[in-house]
């Protein structure tokens, strides 16, 4: 996400007012794609109103960076079932000016089981991040609303649900986009490894099936000729039992005996 694409510093271009409607739709789609990092789900994003972007001057860029430094991010660890990003944005905007909101969808396996065994088919979100334009307001809102009921009018769907949130000091929105992109890259790499592993296992299985088919065909031909397929047993080497009183590996070289004549000859030469 580049600095020129993000944030509330967007200005509407007056020359775009007379363009046809389909051009606006294309611009809005491209802007929405520019707001999202790789791995971010568009359904979980609720940013500021879409506006045409003009190139930023140095002064405008410095002002935008200062505005980003003043912003603060709140982390919501649990999103009530059925609550969407627009509703979270609406509830949080009652306490201060909101920048961007992003909610993370539940994992695919959990969503599949929920749709299979329940009547709710819409996407559910598990956690979320809300950007306030003022970090002081973000901190005070997190301290005030944490572990408190959402409230609202009687009969409201989420009236009795409880907020679970905390302020993230020194955390900026670009860190979130980098984190989401990193997790998406890891997930893609894992899927690639699993697919490669599955492909190699499938190839080995097909090779074994083909080999079994060939062997079965050969055996069938031999049976047709009246020959029986016999497996030759492995020849075993005969085991030699060591002689009694001797152990394997304990044989020693015999000493050569000296005769009496040789002994006398040696003694006479000495004395």
UniProtKB/TrEMBL annotation:
Residues 1-51, 219-271 are annotated as: Disordered. Keywords: Nucleus, RNA-binding. One of its GO terms (biological process) is small-subunit processome assembly. One of its GO terms (molecular function) is RNA binding. The keyword Transcription does not apply. It is found in: Nucleus, Nucleolus. Its main location: nucleus. Belongs to the ESF2/ABP1 family. This is 18S rRNA factor 2. It comes from Hypsizygus marmoreus. The lineage of its organism: Eukaryota, Fungi, Dikarya, Basidiomycota, Agaricomycotina. The gene is ESF2.
